[in-house]
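pipeline/complex-builder :: batch 7 item 3
reading input block
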Amino acid sequence: MTQLDPRRKPRQSRSRATVDAILQATAQVLVRDGYQKATTNRIAERAGVSVGTLYQYFPNKDALVVALCEQHSDEMMTLLSASIAELQDATAERATRVIVRAMLQAHAVNPELHEAIISNLPKEKQFEQILAVNAQAEAMVRVFLEHHRERLATDNIDMAAFIVVNTVEALTHAAVIERPDFLGTEELVDEITRLICRYLLK
Amino acid sequence: MTQLDPRRKPRQSRSRATVDAILQATAQVLVRDGYQKATTNRIAERAGVSVGTLYQYFPNKDALVVALCEQHSDEMMTLLSASIAELQDATAERATRVIVRAMLQAHAVNPELHEAIISNLPKEKQFEQILAVNAQAEAMVRVFLEHHRERLATDNIDMAAFIVVNTVEALTHAAVIERPDFLGTEELVDEITRLICRYLLK
DNA sequence: CCCAAATGTGAGGAATCCTTCAGGTTTCAG
DNA sequence: CTGAAACCTGAAGGATTCCTCACATTTGGG
């Protein structure tokens, strides 16, 4: 991996606005044109600055994408942990519902950008931050399963965690991208919660 | 979209072998190096031919990838339809099990290539053939649900189809890539079948 | 064996793209 | 106001990639 740290840190408010504009432009170009056509010149142009300026704050194109991924996954993680925090000692059904709803919210933060990152970025460029979200989710579910172990219909916690995490992730992701019409009501949350609970519990 | 048809059709067995070698090399390079680094020169080199030869049979890089996608999705579709054909009038449970098993088999044909195509190719280059597989799956599930309508726990067939298709697809795909250790026994098929049936049926 | 058609070769042109750098403009502390 | 630091500019160097084309080799029917 090449150098990723910024070459210069913005000190004046003018440059902080510039960095923001560059990151915002990166997201827009990534969504609109895909990673292939997201050239640094095009990003700079959309941000309303010259390429040189871009390279003052990001040593290379990867660093730019990394920064964007970090910003995006931070937003998702913030939403997730907020919901998780408030389900101390909830029933399994209640906890499942809260997590499903939180996943939908997290995916709805910026669906197009999330889609662009997940299924447009080459795998080797999907940096830690993004992958960490899924790892964290898997860990959380594992704790959850251990906690309700005696109510579970299966004793293969490893496989159950795999199934739950991948199912919820896939459904929330697909819904936000392909079926936004499902998001208006609580029905989708109901259905996914039922899917998971019927599978997990005796 | 640019021209995709071959510029010249192979007539002698020598050239048919060449075309095979090129396609095989494309798959290998795509898996090993990713789409970004899969240059036509590198593919030709790996196939043991010169770039010129490659361009005799494929007018451009896209045509090469399209041909590979077609070949791959044909293999998957063949497996799927074979299994579907033999479940005339099966019970819902039996049908679900057969479909889940078929999906796992289809994904196991060439997991690395499938992964490379799905999550490495830019979305705009994931050509018809691949997307058609999912569309076909969705249609099949819809027929299946209509047929067992009176036994279903829900009357929102649209949403149920969405959930079933995306769930099975995500789980089979993830299992083949991330957890090949789940594939030895019938346990994963059991679990996914249970997940789907408990959700769908009263 | 012979030759026209089929097949194969690979250096290099044209087009991009990432990145640099020499020199300009703006800001702000003193 | 002034000068140094911060910030910005954009032409162009160096690298990479797709694809072509003039030419060489191989094949198979007559």
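note: Residues 93 and 135 of chain B are 22 Å apart (CA to CA).
queue -> next item
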